[in-house]
Amino acid sequence: LSLGVLASGNGSNFEAIMTAIERSALKAQVNVVICNNPGAKVMERAERWQIPRVLLNHREFTSREALDQAIIRTLNQHDVTWVAMAGWMRRVTQQLIDAFPDRVLNIHPSLLPSFPGLHAVQQALDAGVTLAGCTVHHVELAVDSGPIIMQAAVPVLAGDTVEQLQARIQVQEHHIYPAAIALAAHGDSRKNAVADLAGEPLC
Ligand code: GRF
């Protein structure tokens, strides 16, 4: 299982994936991290883990298709078999999805299908839900849609700020993303995949 990670920002989910691999909780390797934002923290993290890094600045491409062609080329050059979008803030094209059929995954900070798109945590607070969470799903063309692989729920507590709720959700993201990759790629039973990873926070 050779992963390519697409990330735009902080990269804490990338870090969680690396930690799970290091602990042999996820039998995989990350062959390349692709980032669209110069200076994103995920690039520093990738350097620390000595993972090849490729910056594909979307501002230097004329279209989504052109960017995705470059992404596909880069993934192929690094012999990637599965793609994990981890805080990837660009809409993807059908070309990318078709290049890795059923092998492009995403994580989103809501219990999909509620609150797709930007500011999902704010959307949840605005709606007044008492349960929030995160979802790992197969990627389809519509933003934050596609078959769900794994979810985790967290309570919304009285007076929660976006930052507080986001932090509670992220703890769960870091558990379920490696587990969901294992489930999708290796067909691990959900119970075992979660049990392997549920012991302690991964990062
Ligand atoms: C996560 O909340 C993820 O659900 C969303 O973007 C955020 C990325 O966080 N898609 P990080 O960059 O992995 O820390």
UniProtKB/TrEMBL annotation:
UniProt catalytic activity: N(1)-(5-phospho-beta-D-ribosyl)glycinamide + (6R)-10-formyltetrahydrofolate = N(2)-formyl-N(1)-(5-phospho-beta-D-ribosyl)glycinamide + (6S)-5,6,7,8-tetrahydrofolate + H(+)
A Pfam cross-reference name: Formyl_trans_N
Class in the EC hierarchy, top level: transferase
Matches recorded under SUPFAM superfamilies: Formyltransferase
InterPro entries referenced in this protein's UniProt entry, alphabetically: Formyl_transf_N (IPR002376), Formyl_transf_N_sf (IPR036477), GART (IPR004607)
Residues at which N(1)-(5-phospho-beta-D-ribosyl)glycinamide binds: G11, S12, N13
Pathway in which this enzyme or protein is active: Purine metabolism; IMP biosynthesis via de novo pathway; N(2)-formyl-N(1)-(5-phospho-D-ribosyl)glycinamide from N(1)-(5-phospho-D-ribosyl)glycinamide (10-formyl THF route): step 1/1
Residue stretches making up the Formyl transferase N-terminal domain: 5-181
Active site per the UniProt annotation: H108
Function: Catalyzes the transfer of a formyl group from 10-formyltetrahydrofolate to 5-phospho-ribosyl-glycinamide (GAR), producing 5-phospho-ribosyl-N-formylglycinamide (FGAR) and tetrahydrofolate.
Matching PANTHER family: PHOSPHORIBOSYLGLYCINAMIDE FORMYLTRANSFERASE (PTHR43369:SF2)
Name under which the protein is recorded: Phosphoribosylglycinamide formyltransferase
Native organism: Leptothoe kymatousa TAU-MAC 1615
Lineage per the UniProt record: Bacteria, Bacillati, Cyanobacteriota, Cyanophyceae, Nodosilineales
Protein's gene: purN
